[in-house]
């Protein structure tokens, strides 16, 4: 049996590398139209394509992991990451970069797969801290990766970012292949191709409407057609999944109160977390002359925000101990409560870089606790043979929350903006409303979490003997 610490470290690195892919192009996002000789509307798909692929692939990869082996599917996703990174690295136009970024987005499925591998392979004494760490990599990778991306993009040609991601993919592939054991737990079933296509079509429609609503107009025919069409497809997909013998997502299990309420809370926590990711970079980087900005460079702003991710990492063992003593439900409530506190502090005190630094550390503690609780709550309430699919669905719920936050907070700041030297900049009122909405999302999450029923796991060692 491989060293448990090595297994945890390898899966945590894979999770951070996957999360890093979400922020890798942010430092050059504003320069992409010039770099690619294209329009801003076209280059926006470089970001959107990654979001869409991550959301669609994550639940599907979870189901495939339960059926064919979690390590095998994780390796396949890492191979896709390498392929996408190389395509992006050699591209000089928008189409190639979009294809590469879409393939990179698939690697987000590694995080829920890694959490499920931990359940299958680790002793119960190590499981809580390991789950907390790998779950928190959703935030850690982005927080650490942003300043790294800024430094690389300022010092080298922008293609270097993608060669770096290709190297990360190869390193992770070799480490997972060498040190992560093969899970003995498999689900004998036929893969639900119709369900996979239906879920993909429905999610793409809804997510495109949400992510492009501000740009296209919320009442535009394209937005309404995609959004409503996606919802209709998802409703039909749900009806189909209830009738098929081996569904992609077992909706009867997903409807269990503990699973359903945890997933709903995940949407709100994801919303609250990403609302701060939209607000604080703008606040830190806006010129002081605007009356609301702090005037930092991209690199300096990234360094102010980075301790949030480091805090999530530090909180992992603390979250594990709290979960063992008080239970994961209280952990989720406490994490959501700290997010409420952080937005209250933001409303009154976010006027300088050091205040934003402190507030982001509080956010890091809250997200670290909440993200540690969610997989544990899910895995206590689902059959052992469905852990990867259930974790994949939970990761999708968090992604939906971040997508809604990006659209809502981005649209709000665009609405409450004024002309400053020929550039539209958000007003103080816009930032304060964003804090209220982000805090409101966290409050809803706390209320939902309070109603999650307590579930005693029937089989804490589902796969391998201790």
From TrEMBL:
Signal peptide: none
The keyword Membrane belongs to this UniProt entry's keyword annotation: yes
A GO-annotated cellular component: plasma membrane
Alphabetized UniProt keyword annotations: Membrane, Transmembrane, Transmembrane helix
InterPro entries hit by this protein: MFS, MFS_dom, MFS_trans_sf
Domain of life: Bacteria
Spans traversing the lipid bilayer: 43-61, 73-92, 98-118, 130-152, 158-179, 191-210, 216-237, 258-280, 292-318, 330-350, 356-374, 395-418, 430-452
One Gene Ontology MF term: transmembrane transporter activity
Bilayer disposition of the protein: Multi-pass membrane protein
The Major facilitator superfamily (MFS) profile domain, residue ranges: 7-457
Main location, first listed in the record: membrane
The UniProt record lists the keyword Membrane: yes
PANTHER family linked: BLL0718 PROTEIN, MAJOR FACILITATOR SUPERFAMILY MULTIDRUG TRANSPORTER MFSC
Protein name: MFS transporter
